[in-house]
Design a protein that fits this description.
It contains 6 helices and 5 strands; from the N terminus they run ααβαβαβαββα. The chain is of the alpha+beta class. β2, α4 and β3 form a beta-alpha-beta unit. The longest helix has 30 residues. Pfam families: Smr.
Length: about 200
C-alpha cells in the first residue's frame, strides 16, 4: 500500500470503533449450550429407555422368592458365564433396590447401570431382596428387576448371587463394555502389532 492509499484508508476509517467481541464469552456460551444439549439428549434417552421398562405388574412374569434366576445373551461364553454365576468376578459396585418403590427402583437401576459402565465396571451386584411378604405378589421387586434387566441392552447376563452376596435376594449382573472402554481395548491390542 502506498502513502496516498494509506492516507485515504485512514481518512475513511477515522470514526470507526472496533467491535467489542469477547471470544472467551462466546466459547463459554457455546460450551454451556453444548453441555445443556448433551444433558437434554441424555434425559431424553433415559426417558425412552425407562418407557420400555414396564411397571405394570400384569406385564411381568412372577418369580418365586427363593427361585434361582439366570439370563445370558448370545455371545457370552459358557465358561465365562459359569465363572460369573459362581461370583468369580470382582464386584466393585452394589445397587440397593429392595426398599424402593417400583418406579424409583426402575430409575435407580437404569442410572446405576449407566454410571457403572462409564466407570468401566463389568460386574455389579443388584440387591432386590427376596420379597417374601411383598404385596400384591411375593418377590415383587425381584420379578420386576429380572424383567427389566433382560430389556436393558447393556446387560449381557445375570444370575442369582452366592449366599455370601445375598443369595436369591440379589443378582450378579454382567455389563457390556462402554464404547470408550471398547476403543481403549482395541488401541491397546493394536499396539506393537507390527513390532518384531
Amino acid at each position: 500500500m502506498g502513502e496516498e492509499e494509506m492516507t485515504l484508508f485512514l481518512q475513511e476509517m477515522s470514526g470507526v470503533q472496533p467491535l467489542k467481541h469477547n471470544t472467551n464469552a462466546t466459547i463459554a456460551e457455546q460450551t454451556v449450550s453444548t453441555q445443556a444439549q448433551n444433558a437434554r439428549r441424555k434425559q431424553l434417552e433415559m426417558s425412552e429407555q425407562l418407557a420400555k421398562l414396564t411397571t405394570d405388574i400384569n406385564a411381568i412374569e412372577p418369580i418365586a422368592s427363593d427361585a434361582i434366576i439366570e439370563f445370558k445373551r448370545d455371545g457370552v461364553q459358557d465358561a465365562v458365564f459359569q465363572r460369573f454365576s459362581r461370583g468369580g468376578y470382582p464386584i466393585k459396585h452394589e445397587i440397593l433396590l429392595h426398599q424402593l418403590k417400583v418406579q424409583q427402583a426402575r430409575e435407580a437401576l437404569y442410572n446405576e447401570i449407566q454410571k457403572s459402565r462409564q466407570k468401566g465396571e463389568r460386574s455389579i451386584l443388584v440387591i432386590h431382596g427376596k420379597g417374601v411378604n411383598s404385596k400384591p405378589i411375593p418377590a415383587l421387586m425381584k420379578s420386576f428387576v429380572a424383567s427389566w434387566l433382560e430389556q436393558i441392552d447393556e446387560v449381557l447376563a445375570f444370575h442369582s448371587a452366592q449366599v455370601h452376596h445375598g443369595g436369591t435376594g440379589a443378582l450378579y449382573v454382567m455389563l457390556a463394555k462402554s464404547e470408550q472402554k471398547r476403543i481403549e481395548t482395541q488401541e491397546s491390542n493394536h499396539k506393537g502389532v507390527n513390532i518384531r
